[in-house]
């Protein structure tokens, strides 16, 4: 299946309205185009600059298994670490379904963490797979699964 590059305007509008009426929501962003359109409409606060997020995230969106944006009192971003090449958002008809090594998954998680630190995120935690009671703070861990980036 070819990579979806269209902007999902209903998601963009949901975020625009959501930030006005709720401090607690998340929505999945299915592709890079929608991610950038959402950041163009998102409200900044404290250390969170949607324009800076959009300008600096680069391929981290396309290489993610999933990306969610929302609010948990303040802006939050969740980035899923893929297990297989085909799970990446940017998959195409030529993408293989090779399993990513633990080293590759840890390296991707570290790139996300380093990026979030540069953007002055207040909390960076990594849920492991299988799920553990408490996420790891500020480092990938052995089996990174879902990275939470939160700006207060």
UniProtKB/TrEMBL annotation:
Protein name listed in UniProt: Uncharacterized protein
Organism: Amycolatopsis ultiminotia
